[in-house]
Write a structure and sequence with these properties.
The complex is a heterodimer of chains A (about 170) and B (about 140). With about 170 residues, chain A is α+β, with helices and mostly antiparallel strands. Helix content of chain A is about 35%, strand content about 30%. In chain B, strands 1, 2, 3, 4, 5, 6, 7 and 8 form an 8-stranded antiparallel β-sheet that branches. Chain B has about 140 residues and is α+β, with helices and mostly antiparallel strands. Classes of the chains: A alpha+beta (about 170), B alpha+beta (about 140).
């Protein structure tokens, strides 16, 4: 077990995302130095809150094109046409990623007792999501569906914070 | 569910009155999903004895009116978004402290954009609509 949560998240993020979405993306995930396309494009954002001994949130973000391909994979090859259905599928993806993440965190740091809130799915143009007073770890993953952004922030969890007492 | 709505409604009115803002409650609508299409949305989740989400949805006009009072600028900039987050934290925190269950709030996230569509939950949600000096403001919540 690592000493701090921050280091744990940094080290675990890639494996966690790959293990949850490997079947859906059907390809090897690689971290990408390239971000998402222009912010004016339509985007989908999934937000999951974390509460327990610490508070935080997980944000997943994709472009509309990536989302279309991803949802078709999730829906056994059939396109997901309505916005409501798209939101439901993306919410489920958020639950899968978030569930895997907090299970690993709770198992590695006893006493955290983190719980997930229901996923919130947004779509829109020029989307901006701000969670004040939270430093977050941001990674871009390149998949054969497109690029996915993951942003994880936990209040008070910074690189220097040691949680040996957990 | 009805009780929690009343706690939220009271907390909203009390919190905004601290900034000299008066709001009137208009209507309450129960819908099948929790959704919003406003320009500015502050979302908070909670876990514990109950699990759910709260959304405070503001059209640009209302966001500018609150921003002018709180930070002295009608522009919905980063500082204004921070102020909305803090305001929402106060409202949700006050409502949760009035309820009997033990619940933990998540940090508020402020989502802005154009042509926004938001979906939180498939469970029934309560949307409470308010009027702030002629500008609309909605608080919606869903308990799972």
């Amino acid at each position: 077990m690592r000493d701090g949560i921050y280091e744990f998240i940094e080290g675990y993020l890639s494996d966690m995302f790959a293990s949850v979405t490997g079947d859906i993306f059907n390809s090897t995930l690689t971290e990408s130095a390239i971000g998402l396309s222009e912010t004016s494009d339509r985007r989908f954002v999934i937000i999951l809150g974390l509460a327990g001994q610490y508070k935080g949130r997980i944000i997943l973000e994709t472009s509309s094109n990536t989302s279309d391909i991803l949802l078709q994979r999730m829906n056994f090859g059939e396109p997901v046409l309505t916005l409501q259905e798209q939101n439901l599928f993306l919410g489920e993806l958020g639950n899968m990623v978030g569930g895997k993440f907090i299970t690993a965190l709770n198992n590695s740091f006893r006493g955290l007792e983190l719980r997930l809130t229901p996923p919130i799915v947004f779509s829109g143009e020029n989307l901006s999501v701000i969670t004040p007073e939270i430093e977050s770890i941001v990674r871009y993953f390149s998949t054969d569906c497109g690029i996915v952004r993951i942003d994880i922030g936990i209040e008070g969890v910074k690189p220097w914070l040691n949680l040996e007492n957990f | 569910m009805v009780e929690f709505g009343e706690f939220l409604s009271t907390a909203l009115m009390e919190t905004l009155s601290m900034f000299g803002l008066r709001v009137e409650r208009n209507s309450t609508i129960v819908s099948e999903t929790l959704s919003s299409s406003s320009d500015v949305n502050v979302v908070l989740g909670f876990t514990g004895d109950a699990r759910g989400s709260i959304v405070i949805a503001l059209p640009k006009k209302t966001a500018s009116a609150i921003s002018t009072i709180m930070i002295g600028s009608e522009e919905v900039n980063t500082m204004a978004k921070s102020a909305f987050a803090e305001l929402s934290n106060m409202i949700a925190g006050a409502a949760i402290s009035k309820s009997t269950g033990l619940m933990n709030l998540t940090p508020p996230s402020v989502v802005t954009g154009e042509n926004i569509s938001l979906m939180i939950s498939r469970v029934k949600s309560t949307n409470m609509e308010f009027n702030l000096n002629g500008s609309p403001l909605t608080i919606a919540f869903a308990l799972e």
